[in-house]
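Case study: Nicotinamidase/pyrazinamidase.
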Amino acid sequence: MGQKYNRLDKDQAALLLVDHQSGLISLVQDFTPDDFKNSVIALADIGKFFNLPTVITTSFDEGPNGPIIPEIVERHPEAPFIHRPGQINAWDNEDFVKVVEATGRKQLIIAGVVTDVCVGFVTLSAIEAGYDVFVVTDASGTFNHTVQQAAWNRMSAAGAQMMNWFGVACELHRDWRNDMEGLGNLLSNHLPNYRNLMTSYFTLQDAKKG
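Here is what the predicted structure looks like once written out:
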């Protein structure tokens, strides 16, 4: 028998955005720059849409790693923002762990740069601390596909679930009837083909009204 289906719950989940910094993002080669940025911003939008407690952190952002990309802070201006002075593993920073604990959530949705270090180390540490971890694969990037696969395998073996941002959105939403237009618009903003579906839907609805 397989493991029990442990699904995301918007009332139990928190979002951790780790080291999406301008310098580090320049290292990402396993996704195209446009696709990667779109996925990161989509995930930030998901956190906002579902009102998830969100924690932002950067590593040595006054150095070559660079500042956080502004789109994240624009969407989460009130989120705790931990500027780590040097710790590579964010879980080694007491302030970061405290704000994660303060969310009161046991499910952690994690994405960051780079996958094998900034995401991997936090994921393994959080699992060890008793959290259920969901890694957003397409909003986490690294040097190449070989490194990507090794990092995914390491985290999966430790118990993390690998997801993409679209899957996260749908699993949190559960039922289209909760807010069809809201989720549809979110998806449309990041998936041009989905925008076509929404346009067709609204055209049909207008025809029915007419």
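For the exam, be able to explain this: The chain has nine helices and six strands.
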